[in-house]
Amino acid sequence: MTRCFMLALWMLCLSVAGTAQQSAYVTSNTLRGAGMDLLTLTFAAVTSDGTVVGYDRPPLEEKMQGAKYRVWLVRPSADGRLPDVRSIPLDIGTLDQIALTPDDRALVAISDQGADFRRISLADGAVSMLMEHQPGSRGFRTIPFTLFRGPDRLVTTGYFYDPEDFAEETTVATLDPQRQGIDAFSAGPEFGSLERQLENLYWSIYADPTLMFFSTQTDQEARVYSWTPTRGLQPIDRGKKLTGGWGEGRALIYGMDDEAGSSKLVLVTGPDARQVLAENGQQTFFNPCVSPGAETVLAELGKKGTDRVSVVYGTADGGWSVSPVPGLENTAPGIVRLSYDGKSGLFYNPTGLRLIRF
HSE of 208 in the Cβ direction (CA atoms, 13 Å)? Predict the structure, then answer.
């Protein structure tokens, strides 16, 4: 009896490994009712426990009190309500990008054209400066305004500058959100010369200073490359057209069309570790994302020239079998994001916010 029970339990675990389900659907009306401005609202991140991070621009009365942006932390319930909603005002000129720290305890926000970095605590909403541009002091400025997530780090690109504001060479820098000032940034490889080696550069992924990814795109051809300190630039793939790319940690996910019009979804987890997860001759994979440890991927799949997509996913536990997320077939395109561990995902489009659990 015990042996039969254990076998049945093992088979049950196999049947659910790597599956996805919508654990919450919050309508746009509910988001509006909670005080969010739908015209400027976007969702940027999700924690492993299902806290969703978004931001918007506040109404005039709040702007007059100094809040130029608001960061929203929401915990949707299974019935589509928002029992736990918090907003954190930010008095900044521009909110360039926002990302979760690896421990899911804080956010790092880039503001004011890449000059300032702030740390926002998820526990109490406290906002503190990580790096503030001050005349007469050394500092770091990010270009472009980008934060990449690694399994245990944040990575950005930019340059250090001296007290007279003269820029040093561009660098891929590791950011320690527990430190402040210039000590929070550690210089890595210089990236400007790498980008200049490639004509028609399309995107650059600097999520790990020891494994970086690049692509080029022309009217006739698309190419994907990896870079490591020992091997330099190496070609990975080529096709007709790239339809999206995303990198986290040492993982890259991208969509690519070939000459015949077929689309493929490709995962790369190392210089020589390339895997085609799915192919489709009728529709295109686009807007993909991957968790930093390459546990989960999300993407949208839709016919060219239409405004309807299906959100698809694959997991390492599920053998990378790519399938639609239940309830997210034939919907409007939107934003997809994954948590650090790949256990939670979000999908946000004009109809509302979905929390996905894997």
Answer: 23
